[in-house]
Amino acid sequence: MAEPRLAVRRKSRSSSERKRSRAPVQPIAASSPVARKRPSSGGSGAPAEASCSNDSEEDMFGDYDSFYGNDSLMAQVEDIEHKHLQDRNMDVKAAGEIVPMNLQLGVQQKEQDNFSASENVFVLQSDKEGACQVRDSDQELTESILDDLPSSQVLYFEKMNELSSASRMSPVSKGRDERLNSTSDKVRDPLSFCAGAEQRNRPTDSSSSSKCVLFKTESLKDHLKSAMTGNARAQTMQVSKSKQLKEAVLSEEIFVARKAIESSSVDIGPFYGLPSKVKDLFRQLRGIETLYEWQHDCLMLESLQQRKNLIYSLPTSGGKTLVAEIIILQELLCRQKDVLMILPYVAIVQEKVRGLSSFGIELGFLVEEYAGSKGRFPPIKRRVKKSLYIATIEKGHSLVNSLIETERIDDLGLVVVDELHMLGEGSRGAVLEMTLAKILYTSKKTQIIGMSATLNNVGDLQKFLQAEYYTNNFRPVELKEYIKIGDTIYAVDSKTENGFAFSRLLNFKYSSNLEKADPDHIIALVTEVIPKYSCLIFCPTKKNCENVASMVCKYLKKEFRAHREKEKQDLLKNLKSIGNETLCPVLKQTIPFGIAYHHSGLTNDERKSIEEAYSSGVLCLLACTATLAAGVNLPARRVILRAPYVGNDFLKKNQYKQMIGRAGRAGIDSAGESILIVQEKDKHLVRDLVHSPLENCYSNLLLELTKGMHSLLL
């Protein structure tokens, strides 16, 4: 009796395979897929009109139940379902006939108990195998149907299956499971099965009973239709497209930011962790092709990789600022933190703002100036772009105070201090010390970088800033130091007894009038250099700058006016337009000769125009104050110190080093010269100045009756 059942299984498998590989149904004109005639489930073959009902729900699909064209997916589903039920009913009939036969054989032939038992086992095993194969064919049919569905519907069915299996099993499926379990128990226990058969001794249609009770399942067609109905009725929120776009951009930015924070490596490019675009910008805007060896070594320090505080010291013009700028860009672009850069003077702040604004535009960060009347407290908190605050010492202190008050000090990832030796200079040094002390105390995540060309007691500064130290004696251009006493020039030489070695006499003949006007022979020293090369004259006061510029141009030859005359006229027009059609009479007199003065009395626009003209070679001589020595990038072939004084105070060693450090332009000059003009009465002071070590930096908080400490506490 097992052979018919096996044949039925083969038929079911071949049927499913045919259904999977069959060609699409040919279109039928003027006929609804639902109204198509199909064989009845009873197997009689009589045609019956199929009607579709969606229970109590309104039919939202009308006469169409197909996802594509006229080939009805619903019709395929219903055909497969009917044939599948017929196959399963035939399996049940076969199982019902085999079991009584085995029981009867067991009563008549007791001597064949072992053989009968083995046959029973074989039948039960074949039943189980048949059930497994029926399930496999069922799964194959379902998968073949789902292949034709859109991905959204497939995901929906997977979700529905998970929910139904986990927590919401339908009563029909529960009843079905109970009946299947009871049937399998009765098959295992033939006596109880026979007893139940005797009590219910009335004929039943096995086909109809199995369809209504044992295999009552929710129609897959109804399942599909209810799912599509739910999708069609689902209401979408009315949200503007612009708002959706903004939310998408915001979520993407948050994801990128979190990924950057969680990432162990902050490298985003090949140029010291920066994009190669940064290297291209340095080449285009600064003309820097490669870094010096010491710059590479400094950037690769282990202390910088571990974000430790760092102090580094090199001679002036050694390239310290470039290293600081690369570290700043790493903080802004890689770690996505704000940066504060503290510079000593307003002019240097303005120059640095102009120099880094182009980088900000190209790389997507903001450059904010905090000098003079400019700057906002607290700074604007921005969501996307990070800010580089470039500030004077006093403005930097106010900025740090505002960030601490608003609990935003952790947003400050890096603080860079140029001219760190300013810590030891009076009340301004006290303000700088207060700023650094507050940062060290309130934020453990903020890194501090300090740089200077004139540091002596580095150990004390290291202890204060909890920093590492790097130093090098590299200088790109050789510097030659000279002292002028009378009409004789001496070379600074520490090996000689006096500290000076005779160099030469001035080869310039002075008239009596010129000797009275220029007793220090400035004109003779200047004309040896200009107009072919550039020259700086450092003067003690602002008024002295203007007087020296006027005096020099008064005694220059007329040939100097012809040098780049057109550019000089354009500069005069530009300065006149800046001053509302008014121009300083001194500049009006000196600029035609290529000479100007540079001090804090100039407006920002005037200073910018003069600096650009000097850098381009239109102006060849600047008479300036010590402000220019502190970092404005205006080097010269020769630097002349008009007197060893700054105001009324005698020159300090670090101030002297800063001034003579302007001599020598990397890539332009083979050597730089500095000449200090000295009177006989100051000769011994100058000897000590030239050969003495640099001054130590000491705290200024306790000076002036603890005035600085009171300010700190307040």
Automatic annotation (TrEMBL):
Name listed for the protein in its UniProt record: HELQ Helicase
Subcellular location per the Swiss-Prot or TrEMBL entry: Nucleus
The Helicase C-terminal domain, residue ranges: 525-709
Superkingdom, natural source: Eukaryota
Pfam families hit by this protein: DEAD, Helicase_C, HTH_61
GO cellular component terms given for this protein: nucleus
UniProt entry tagged with the keyword Transmembrane: no
Catalytic activity, as annotated: ATP + H2O = ADP + phosphate + H(+)
Species name: Regulus satrapa (Golden-crowned kinglet)
Every Helicase ATP-binding domain range: 301-473
Main location: nucleus
UniProt-listed InterPro entries: DEAD/DEAH_box_helicase_dom, Hel308_SKI2-like, Helicase_ATP-bd, Helicase_C-like, HTH_61, P-loop_NTPase
Keyword annotations from UniProtKB, A to Z: ATP-binding, DNA damage, DNA repair, Helicase, Hydrolase, Nucleotide-binding, Nucleus
Region (Disordered): 1-64
Annotated GO biological process: DNA repair
Gene Ontology MF, one: nucleic acid binding
